[in-house]
Design a protein that fits this description.
Radius of gyration: 14 Å
Structural class: alpha+beta
Bound molecules: zinc ion
Low-confidence stretches: none
Number of helices: 4
Helix content: 25-40%
Number of domains: 1
CATH topology: Muramoyl-pentapeptide Carboxypeptidase, domain 2
Shape: globular
Mean pLDDT: 94
Strand content: 5-15%
Distance between the termini: 26 Å
Length: about 140
């Protein structure tokens, strides 16, 4: 499968253990929207240019189990992305501010998980909609 997105590398999207790649177009659409909005906000508030790298998108069931994900994690279906925080000269809390503000302003995602140093977004229509949660007891999903 060729790289399905101009703004995200195949390495960012594929499973790190087996290089398999399943990614839903609706997830990429949301990430593109979020990327553009986050860029505008960071430029406006912090006068910094930021990109939107993703640290995890597709996970095969084996790798998902290894990292402690739930068996039906949205990552297994190529419907989720984790956005790392604390990059481009922003502190983790500044970067979290930019990304959460961009999520609400763009309306790109309505399922959001807040981690200490990353934010999970997904487009899994089989799970509860319009929810934000945290991982403060358990780091990964
Ligand atoms: Zn794998
Ligand atoms: Zn995640």
């Amino acid at each position: 499968m060729p790289n399905p997105s101009p703004n995200f590398t195949r390495e960012e999207l594929e499973c790190p253990c087996c290089k398999a790649l399943i990614v839903q177009p609706i997830l990429l659409d949301g990430l593109e929207k979020l990327r553009a909005t986050a860029r505008d906000i960071a430029l406006d508030i912090f006068e910094t240019i930021i990109y939107l790298p993703v640290s995890s998108v597709y996970r095969c069931p084996l790798h998902n189990a290894e990292v402690g994900g739930k068996w039906d994690s949205a990552h297994v279906y190529g419907k989720a992305a984790d956005i790392p925080l604390g990059l481009y000269g922003l502190s983790v809390s500044q970067h979290r501010y930019v990304i959460t503000r961009a999520i609400t302003m763009s309306g790109a995602f309505n399922r959001v998980g807040i981690n200490r140093t990353s934010i999970h977004v997904d487009v899994d229509e089989n799970k509860a909609q319009n929810v934000w949660w945290d991982y403060y007891k358990k780091e990964a999903e």
